[in-house]
Amino acid sequence: MPSDENAPLMGSKPKHWSNVKKRTMFTRTVIALALLFGVAGGVAWFTKATSSTGGGGDTNDPDFSSLRGFCDDIEAIQPSEYLERHARLAETLPEGGALVMEPGPTMLYYTNIEWSLSERPFLVVLQRAANSTITTTVVTPMFEATRALEAIQEAKLPMEISIKVVEWIEHGSPYETTAELLEEASHVFVEPGVRLFVYDGLADILSQQHGVVTTMASRALQTLRMVKSPAEIAIMRCANRATVAAAKKVRHHVKPGMTEADIASLVTQALTAAGLTNTWVLALVDENAAFPHGEPGATKRVTKHSTVLIDSGGELLGYQSDVTRTFFMDNGDRNSHNQTIVDAWYLVKSAQQAVLHDAHAGSTCAEVDLAARHVIDRAGYGRYFTHRLGHGIGEEMHEEPYMNQGNTHIKLQPGMTFSVEPGIYITHEFGIRLEDIVVVTKDGNLELLTDSLADNPWTL
Ligand SMILES: *[C@@H]1O[C@H](CO)[C@@H](O)[C@H](O)[C@H]1NC(C)=O
Ligand SMILES: *[C@@H]1O[C@H](CO)[C@@H](O)[C@H](O)[C@H]1NC(C)=O
Q1: Which of 207, 270, 274, 332 is 20 to 30 A away from residue 163, measured at CA?
Q2: Within 6 Å (CB) of ligand 1, which residues are found?
Q3: Cβ neighbours around 56 below 10 Å, total
Q4: How many CB atoms lie within 10 A of CB 62?
């Protein structure tokens, strides 16, 4: 996917319990009726869908069973890896430094603790002790302490990482409780994702009562999570290969007459068969693909001359995949497809190849972006490559480092993983994007986690 989304931070909770209660009986009735009609409607839809699959006369149900078990031999992150993460953090934090985080990817990275964000702060404090080990403290609302202990147990951390739990009382201040832990700290860093009211509450008390400075995590601290371990790379390699395999399988089942929504549903089935969870799909046909973030619709249909873009991904063992393939419905006859669009496809591919060839450890993210952009510029399509080249990927589908021509301060390091996804988008005409995931290897080159680039726009 070419750009950022901001997930909502928390669900809203009903404010007036008495009203909620009064409505309960009514709500139950409505739910029961809805279920009844839902089931009837579902049966009708299913009958219709199976009797006219795809509207293109394809009577075979797509069979994605060959994708089953695709990543079964991939190991989850082992407990000992959390010790390595703490050791790297200890090397990067200054003496007496501390890192504070809220629930989210960084908390999972260092502690494997899963917790939902709510208005009541739940924090993890990682501090570098005098002996250069990391001490871990969880700050939890007191009434949630039992659940917090369960979450810590479920994290299955190695014995060497012991976690201290500190509770804050409902009418008390989570910031005072946290500041007491940090009064001796030389410097407190907060993760960039920490919400402003939490940062503000903590920084205020730390500076006024203890003279401790609180800032956002330094670039060096943020870089730690960008550099992936062999175990993380193995998971991401399989997740992304599975996503390519799903796109290739689906391509055989895309028939004239299908809608974008039909294609999206096939991709979801294929990704799920391959064992990915939290899957998502953009399936866009012809001029709709000119919207980099278009929504698959139920009206636009594939013709036998269509250009089809599938951008999809999912999660495996806590890590994300993200792959785009654009293909043509003509049967591999180079002259039967619109020549402008064929040329654009090969141009986008050569922009990907330029990145693989030119970028290496030490390149700035700006240089990585420009390696692709120059190719597209030279062919006269520069103004139609409207977004950055790519984004980091890992626990999050979009994370640092971002490959854009303004990002001159981050340089590639071995272990960094990111998308290479140039595109050409001509509004009301067509859109082409190809997206593969790469890792920077130990010897400084880029290696495809997707195995290989799309070979051609017909067979992929
Ligand atoms: C290092 O110091 C911390 C905090 O004082 C202590 O809890 C821990 O046991 C020490 N670890 C080692 C290996 O000495
Ligand atoms: C091919 O596609 C381009 C871009 O959409 C369009 O301008 C051109 O008219 C098309 N050519 C033919 C022969 O349809």
Answers
A1: 207
A2: 129, 131, 133, 135
A3: 17
A4: 18
